[in-house]
Design goal:
The chain contains no helices and eleven strands. The protein is mainly beta and 122 residues long. The chain is globular.
Length: 122
Amino acid sequence: QVHLIESGGGLVQTGGSLRLSCAASGRTWSSYIMGWFRQAPGKEREFVAAMSRSGGSIDYADSVKGRFTISRDNAKNTVYLQMNSMRPGDTAVYYCAAGPISSRLRNLYDSWGQGTQVTVSS
């Protein structure tokens, strides 16, 4: 497994931007698919974005496509989620996850961070 720590959450106004970071530790980190999920109060955890080991394959949820960008720096053991044009509906706890297979299914990821709160005010 990989140990993950998210940072960068906070309060932002509608239309604003935030960048989340996920620092990973573990000898085989760079071999994992990296994903971002989010969970709003009273809702299930949902897929946001995922990136392959090389960065050549990227997937986004329709709700964030064109606004969010996932990237990774394997040399720094860090994955990022740049969030632009944010909306109140983006308010959630955001989780970084690592797994062996690129998927939108959260149960296929075997390592999770503790989450970071993102709040978008209207």
